[in-house]
Design goal:
The chain has a domain of about 80 residues: DOPA-like domains (Alpha-Beta Plaits, 2-Layer Sandwich). It contains 4 helices and 5 strands. The chain has a 5-stranded antiparallel β-sheet with strand order 2-3-1-4-5. With about 110 residues, the chain is an alpha+beta fold. The mean pLDDT is about 95.
């Protein structure tokens, strides 16, 4: 079984929800040991929407995930583990909060998985 070294929670947003997403991500980074990425106003990687990544260690899961569940304000959040098996982490091991969206998993073919 692969080891989970951390997690990425991708907060999805659009032009109408960008401020809400930014506040949510900033709050998470202030309250927890979370590294907030950039607010991408274009689709990046396999993600079908604009997004901001929240990266955190495996031992922060039990704090961060419940807080996101209760505070996501209707935003869709895609969370996956980091094991080094990128395709499986995104395709088979993900947690969705809100609408489940189709990812562009072909990026992992180009990366050699």
């Amino acid at each position: 079984m692969p080891e989970i070294t951390g997690y990425h929670a991708h907060v999805y947003f659009d032009a109408n929800t960008q401020e809400t997403a930014q506040q949510l991500c900033e709050d998470a980074a202030r309250l927890f040991p979370v590294e907030m990425g950039r607010m991408h106003t274009k689709n990046v990687g396999p993600h079908p929407c604009w997004s901001c990544q929240l990266a955190f260690a495996a031992d922060a899961f039990d704090q961060v995930i419940p807080w996101l569940m209760l505070n996501r304000q209707g935003l869709t959040i895609f969370t996956h583990p980091e094991t080094g098996q990128h395709l499986e982490d995104h395709r088979d091991r993900a947690i969705w909060m809100g609408e489940m969206l189709a990812l562009d998993l072909s990026i992992f073919d180009r990366m050699g998985r």
